[in-house]
What we know:
The first copy, chain A, contains 19 helices and 16 strands.
Amino acid sequence: MQKPSIPKGTRDFGPAQVARRQHIFNVIRRTFESFGFAPLETPTLENLSVLTGKYGDEGDQLLFKVLNSGDFAKDVTGADLEIGSKALLPKVAEKGLRYDLTVPFARYVAMNRGTLTFPFKRYQMQPVWRADRPQRGRYREFYQCDADVVGTDSLLCEAEIVLMMAQVLNGLGLDDFTIKINHRGVLRNIYQALGGEGRESDLFVAIDKLDKIGRDGVTKELLERGFANATVETLFELLTVAGSYEEKLERLVAGFVTAGVEPDGPRPDGADEEAAASYRGLAELATVRDLLVASGFKQFDRLEFDPTLARGLSYYTGCIFEVKINNVLMGSVSGGGRYDNLTGSFGLPGVSGVGFSFGVDRLYDCLEALDLFTATAETPTRCLITHFDAASGRAALPLLAQLRAAGIPSELYPDVSKLQKQFKYADAKGIPLVIVLGPEELAAGLAKIKIMASGTERVLPLAEVVTALTAE
Amino acid sequence: MQKPSIPKGTRDFGPAQVARRQHIFNVIRRTFESFGFAPLETPTLENLSVLTGKYGDEGDQLLFKVLNSGDFAKDVTGADLEIGSKALLPKVAEKGLRYDLTVPFARYVAMNRGTLTFPFKRYQMQPVWRADRPQRGRYREFYQCDADVVGTDSLLCEAEIVLMMAQVLNGLGLDDFTIKINHRGVLRNIYQALGGEGRESDLFVAIDKLDKIGRDGVTKELLERGFANATVETLFELLTVAGSYEEKLERLVAGFVTAGVEPDGPRPDGADEEAAASYRGLAELATVRDLLVASGFKQFDRLEFDPTLARGLSYYTGCIFEVKINNVLMGSVSGGGRYDNLTGSFGLPGVSGVGFSFGVDRLYDCLEALDLFTATAETPTRCLITHFDAASGRAALPLLAQLRAAGIPSELYPDVSKLQKQFKYADAKGIPLVIVLGPEELAAGLAKIKIMASGTERVLPLAEVVTALTAE
């Protein structure tokens, strides 16, 4: 006899959890669809040739690989074994589990380029797998919900990402959030202000730690890496520019001019009307804000232009986003950005796109931490019919069928049991209504209905039960 | 540059396919929930100790196994390599992909026995993976939708399975179906009639082929396996008994009596009123029929008592079910049965239950073969706003926000493009309504709405557009 268990980092979701998770999925799906995104689903299994090399070395390590079926070891030699896992891997596994939704999406677009209509807007809500060390808020199997548009560089897409982020969080009741926005162009300009060249990644890695090690820590790291002291001073003046979204834009323009940063020119979409037009990143951030104003967006107190936002992924080229729920100890619940060449590695270069992702498991944990879930029953059943014996049980079947036909999920307690046990069942499952059909009730053509929450009972003619409960 | 592909036996589902599949899931989910089944989700990854040995030798072969993460080959020795895959497997893989929904369910019930309220009714709609040879209607990644009740032996559960099968198929418009029902007790009794002992499996394997090799083939096989000629004659008299559900029950009782089959006694739930009471299988099949009559079931022409139905799985002990869609070349789309000891191998013996499963991919293929899908758009978008330049595009944003707020999924074409291109986009995606917002319309405070299907156009004041489209 074995003691069953599940792999670490994975979870079972019982009825109440599934119902709560469905609520999150529904809010996200409705928002995505309201903005015209269409659903896509890709296989759990992808060829390792598609996955490998897309997530960096660390990502390749964290991919779950699937053993070839049949005699998987037939091509392995003693020499392979001496080299070890690295030599064995390509001989024993050619498939892996989906690691994110972005690479499969890029693969899908490249494979179906001939039949898709661009701009192509898709959303995808599926699990992904990473062989990460499990910890709070980090699982080995977890869900992502992505929405991407490819085939347009319109900044309306960026503005709509902010609208969708806010709509989902408001819809979930997570009102106290901060959407951080930045632009890779701004970071590039700051890098220019530093006079650096070829050491972009050193700088971004250091900036990314600002939250954790503070200004002193980042300064120390940059000095150690050979940046000049005055340069680092300039960096922090630019990075920590204060004020509203618009004030920061203005002050960064001034800062760039002072620091002698070369303009990288206006974009041909009206952004040249802006004061910041000569710096593409700032110009686009200004345009995104204008489009939000025109769209009636009201929550600018929750939208922060944060020049220190870097985001790890290398493929971003334009606006980048990250969302945190305030007052909950939890990483970001959403993030994304614009990329110019996501499908390039699949033979379809130059397709610009922008996308973002919600982490459903983190949203769930935030809702739980903030006690924002409403009470969720362990069953969809609204009504339990109790009975006294086989005869009264059988006599209840027409009523049961009528309740279901009226759209009221219902059960007849399946066994002949004490009434107390049947009520205990309803109570444990959170079934709100119980109908008692005893021999007396049946003889009189009546049914007793008990509302479990209040304990209220009412007796009704059998023929009126469905109508009464439909109105309940 | 790589040419991307997906593993054989797997599929991408584009927007229209996802929408059609969601329709199937919704019909099944609504039915399950209407009968009081609550959702459960289990991890994709299960420990191989949970999966192995549950599906027979062939099943073990078809399990997808996942390589341990990190240095997976570290414990593999040269000696292992000489023996081959069998010796390597336990050293390199300890997890596998879900093969069905029944074993994870049994594992879940055993793990959570202390907190679950019995009878426990759960449904589960998740993908499963099998390293089978892909062919028509058989994929390596496919969805199952299961509903099971454990902790009761009430035959109401069996009757409700028939009701749910019929409700789902009717709900999908697959009206021409046959639900076959049999009982392992009937097969046991027939076996007794043959005087056989210890060769049950020989018999069931042969019977299972009746569809394919016919009466002559089965006879030949049984004679070869040493069954007496007269015995096989009796077998076929019993197996091929003609008539309605009730007539077959009556004729089998008579046949059993003639053949001297020992009664296996009535069950204590009212079945003893039946003529067939002394044979448990026949008695239960009679009770299931009575419960269906009492529940108002009307489709008895689609319910066939088929004594030749055997079902492969060894764990069934009571009623068994199988559903075929008539006039479509396709295996069964649903099946199930009662088991008495599903959780036994996980340390929880004696929990009786009954369950069944829909194969979503086969239902999809049947609906497609019978042309029963309604036209499905490539997008949820109902309304596309077209425009002439950046200014008219921006002026459209308040209307766009209003349409979405009114629950009408809408898009503004994101780029400044020729009107023709924007209409082509709407047409390719199946967007039913297009709003034209040109400089003239905007100056006059008007919007032109085109209904794509009919080509009809109407011009409305901008302020009336949302109300008009809500009524559309």
